[in-house]
Automatic annotation (TrEMBL):
NCBIfam families the record matches: L28
Pfam families, per database record: Ribosomal_L28 (PF00830)
Keywords, sorted A to Z: Ribonucleoprotein, Ribosomal protein
InterPro entries registered for this protein in UniProt: Bacterial_rp_bL28 (IPR050096), Ribosomal_bL28 (IPR026569), Ribosomal_bL28/bL31-like_sf (IPR034704), Ribosomal_bL28_bact-type (IPR001383), Ribosomal_bL28_sf (IPR037147)
Name of protein: Large ribosomal subunit protein bL28
Example GO biological process: translation
Keyword Secreted carried by entry: no
Record family assignment: Belongs to the bacterial ribosomal protein bL28 family.
Keyword Acetylation applies: no
Length: 61
């Protein structure tokens, strides 16, 4: 899974814990989209998380 090019948010790892407290590996993917952004006057495709898109850190092309 890709990382956000703005904030660096990526995959998170941990454990799924059942009712009987048995543990298995878990992975949580961040909501990262591939969008066209304005960079240095031109358009460029970047991986950006939705929280950076919502906060206005990125200007879409």
């Amino acid at each position: 899974m890709a990382k956000c090019d703005i904030c660096g948010k990526g995959v998170h790892f941990g454990n799924n814990v059942s009712h009987s407290h048995r543990r298995s590996n878990a992975i949580w993917n961040s909501n990262v989209k591939s969008v066209k952004c304005k960079v240095n006057g031109g358009a460029r495709r970047m991986h950006v998380c939705t929280s950076c898109l919502k906060s206005g850190k990125v200007e879409r092309a």
